[in-house]
């Protein structure tokens, strides 16, 4: 099935190394290698290609985090692992949409990954909360927070960007923004 | 120490901007002051979350870039199994289809149940006992009391069913349909003058739907000689027949002809007649032009208009014959002399109406 994409499937160990090194090319090869499998799973179980994309990207992120944390053991094939995560994610989504008819048409073997998916989705919820809190924060706080905490820019850069004449003013402003962000985050 | 100063220290510590001395001092502070330690953990977690969020955005961006290079539509075409439309509809909607089907089946059953199709009784055969509305029943009770010179305590509850019956003998035996008096608590008959008499059911014959009542009311006096006879033989097709009954409060004459020697579904105990009948006619007499009783009106067909059914008189006679002697308090003398034969139809009816009764059925439910 992969000849439509003209990619060879990368070796599992190569993928693990590539993830640890944050390699773009490995990520791309990984993505292209297994997307057709997940597309097949989703479109044959009441979904469309957009659903497949969402599910697949979520699964790749799960794999990435797992490898980065260092607890991915090569006990199963990467393919089986990705398939299992996607299958679980898709089942959950089908149930949420009330489109689950009680059976799922499988194309591969799969592993029990319920706990892992559960953990991932809890974390995902936290990140979504953060996204919402940032959206509510407003300017210039949002950009200050993004620049400092997310993009690791220095206070110097931030001072210049917003035209603060002294670093203390900028620090006070940053502190106030952080307090507001925390408040918004924990209120939700 | 001010809150923002603590935060600044935490950040400098985390970013590794502190000197070795400062670090030691800060770590000592964390050990000493629990609130500082809590702030430290919380801040680390929160900024960590921000960092993770940033990483996720970055990752999504990278993945979307890769995804945009895939020709999803060709891929999809190749991967789709192509089941027929019906199978796809079923797959996508089978839970909904199942629910719809259950509801449809349930609705059908409920409809059948309430229209009577699930009972053994054929609904197209309508028995003609009339369910009396409360108001009508009360009206007739009041009327009866006014007409009578000495009003007796009539029934205080209202009649549940009303039908017709006619005298078998001058001493108060009356015949009607069994389906009229079935499950009755008490049965009254009312004559053309509006007088009501209590009766008891002395015999029933479910096979022919016939019930024999006896007036056991002290105010009842002899009816006088019955003017009609009961025909033993069969009547012929096309014979002119008529009935007299109480589908309304007033007696109603129904003329017609005998249209078949067999009743509903070929029931050989019945005649089919083209006599107009309505609920309330049940139990009325069917007479031929000479004034012989040839049957007892018992039902009509609901699907075709104008057909009624009457139990044949020989089955009535058979029923009378079958009554055990000890159920009768008086001996049963059937009239053998017909005094209607030579009379014109209005004259016949004038005589006849004194022997035809409204049967009122009461049950306390």
Please give a structural write-up.
The complex is a heterodimer of chains A (188) and B (365). Chain A is mainly alpha-helical and 188 residues long. Chain A folds into two domains: 2-112, Rna Polymerase Sigma Factor, Chain: A (Orthogonal Bundle); 122-187, Arc Repressor Mutant, subunit A, CATH 1.10.10. Chain A has eight helices and no strands. In chain A, helix 3 crosses helix 4 (78-96). Chain A starts with 11 loop residues before the first helix and ends with a helix. The model of chain A has no long low-confidence stretch (mean pLDDT 83). With 365 residues, chain B is α+β, with helices and mostly antiparallel strands. Chain B has three domains: 3-67; 81-115; 127-365, Thrombin, subunit H (Beta Barrel), CATH 2.40.10.120. Chain B is built from nine helices and 15 strands. In chain B, the strands form two sheets. Chain B has a six-stranded antiparallel β-barrel. Chain B has a six-stranded antiparallel barrel with strand order 3-4-7-6-5-15. Chain B is elongated and about 140 Å long. At the A-B interface, helix 2, helix 3, helix 5, helix 6 and helix 8 of A face helix 1, helix 3, helix 4 and helix 5 of B.
